[in-house]
Amino acid sequence: MSTQVKPGNVPVKANERPKYAPQQRGGGPMGHGVGTGEKAASFGPSLRRLLGHLRPEIGIVYAVIAMVILGTIANAVGPAILGRATDIIFNGVVRDGSGIDFTALGNVLLLALACYVVAGLFTWSSGILINGVVQRSVYRMRQQVSAKINRMPLKYFDNQPRGELLSRVTNDVDNVAQSLQQTLSQVLTNIFMLLGVLVMMFVLSPILAVVSLVTIPIALGLTMVIGKRSQKLFAKVWKSTGELNAQIEEAYTGHDLVKVFGRQREVMTTFRAKNEELYQSAFGAQFISGIIMPVMFFVGNLNYVVIAVIGGLQVASGTLGLGSVQAFIQYSRMFTQPITQLASMANLLQSGVASAERVFEVLDAEEEPTEEQGELPEVVGRVAFENVTFSYTPEKPLITDLSLVAEPGSTVAIVGPTGAGKTTLVNLVLRFYDLQGGRITLDGVDIASIPRRTLRSEIGMVLQDTWLFGGTIRDNIAYGREGATEDEILAAAKATYVDRFVHSLPEGYDTLINEEASNLSAGEKQLITIARAFLSDPSLLILDEATSSVDTRTELLVQRAMKKLRSDRTSFVIAHRLSTIRDADVILVMEDGAIVEQGTHDVLLAAKGHYHRLYQTQFAAAITDEEDAA
């Protein structure tokens, strides 16, 4: 085992990987901001991109458009047919006094009924089809987001509060689905209805049709002015929703600590501020977009009055029949109705596009470079750092020109104060981050040339923070290796002393772990994660404070299991409790991102340097605690 620290290496003060980026904190101990997407993209490009997700369903979309056109035609000719019925009654009673031709009237009414039935069937069928199109498209969007998250580098999650990211992939995607569901079919129907009614209006009376067209630029102008303002507010609504979700998720996760330290009032203050911000933006967005509907009704009523006056004059002069005027008045209502509905749907569409932009920001985030799959030959386990340089941010260098070699089968312990770069060192071995300089090799092969999945399949890791998913204890252990047999799972559990406490549980290995794993002690959870690593049988082993949550008696048992687990494989052990690494082949002492000492436990104690001071500090603290207890 050899370690080399280059001369002249004066690293800047180290900082361990931040949980959140510094600029995203604020507003109190439980508050934080959002790091992405403060300004919404333009409405047009975002809408086109959103509609592009419907492309795989283009055949069904064309079928829907055909149904909408046929339904619109049937709907559009209805008033004209009913106008003919009015003429039959008017002519038979008032004009020639010959009486009503009920046979002709009945035929006309049956024809009108048939038109409306056909229109209803086509509208119903198109609604069902468009519902399937939207749901399948959003289903694919969720798949894309899920796959995208798996391709993102770890640094993306460092700078993204979990609640904010969850809000994007749940609330925002659901809002996109709801917006498309409620607007897509209606937009198609109303656009074609507008065109169909316009044609029929020109057929009946070109003069009245031109009068009706005056309302279109007025309606479009008002809609654009109002919509432009509400779009910004809807973008702010979903940004505020993400911030509120992030604050709630953080406060709920740390609920016990909040109560212990009596910070409920401060958490509630932060929550009220975020909630008030969401309320104000949501109220403003809905208020402004809600103005569209009454404004359009007002414009439509003006159009109705003008048509009624001009139409009445034409009937009086004999240039237009009463039935035609009646039909035209119906058409005027049908003409303004699509415009009004399109305007009223603007707020839904704007809300959906604002959410889509937030989802697109996730989909457009930087990914880890795509790599070809490959297999490693049998791993011996020699790990070498060669002049490695790394920092999380360019302005804060962390590791500078560091070199070391871990020989096959050796146990390398890494100690040092918080922020020294210990966890960073093993994160680099796992390729969670890319180097700024130098290289790391595994059996002489640069790990940058090894596919990440292949490299990580050879590495087992036990973290200080335990992670268990909702499932049985058996399932959580089996997570370590796909296809593990029952005997292998039990052997791993027994080797790591999980078997000792499992039998005290009512369901044994079939005991379900709840969402927060609160039905197990911290030590029991840690033992399960150790059993998982044991089952994976890795070539390299990384233990990051793996026994920090285990009591003293259990620690002795785990140390035996760890010794068995570390045999014949290279192991990196990060430890603050120096008593757990006495048997390590080499102990590296890190400070400010550099290795300042190396050697065995006894050698480093005898040197009376950094390690000796760390050891004495822990020992003195233990003695003081015992004296205070006495």
Q: Which outline best applies? A: elongated
Distance between the termini: 44 Å
Mean pLDDT: 77
Tell me the structural class.
alpha/beta
Strand content: 5-15%
Q: Supply the CATH class of the domain at 42-363.
A: Mainly Alpha
In terms of per-residue confidence, which ranges show pLDDT below 50 for 5 or more consecutive residues? 1-40, 621-630
- Summarize the amount of helix as a percent range: 55-70%
CATH superfamily placement of the domain at 42-363: ABC transporter type 1, transmembrane domain
Quaternary arrangement of the chains shown? single chain
Please give the largest β-sheet: 6 strands, mixed
The whole-angstrom Rg is 36 Å
What is the CATH topology descriptor of the domain at 42-363? ABC transporter transmembrane region fold
- Please, how many helices? 21
CATH architecture of the domain at 42-363: Up-down Bundle
**Total strand count, please?**
13
Give an overview of the whole structure:
- With 630 residues, this protein is an alpha/beta fold.
- It has a domain at 42-363: ABC transporter transmembrane region fold, CATH 1.20.1560.10.
- Helix content is 61%, strand content 10%.
- The chain has 21 helices and 13 strands.
- It has helices spanning 43-52, 58-95, 102-151, 154-158, 162-204, 206-213, 215-253, 255-260, 264-290, 292-317, 322-344, 346-363, 422-429, 452-456, 473-478, 486-495, 498-502, 522-536, 552-566, 601-607, 610-629, and strands spanning 2-5, 383-390, 399-406, 411-415, 437-442, 445-446, 459-462, 471-472, 512-513, 540-544, 570-574, 586-591, 594-599.
- The strands form 3 sheets. A 6-stranded mixed sheet has the order 7-10-11-4-12-13, sandwiched between helices. Strands 1-3-2-5-6 form a 5-stranded antiparallel sheet, with no helix packed on it. A two-stranded antiparallel ribbon has the order 8-9.
- Strand 2 and strand 3 form a beta hairpin.
- Helix 1 packs across helix 12.
- The two termini are 44 Å apart.
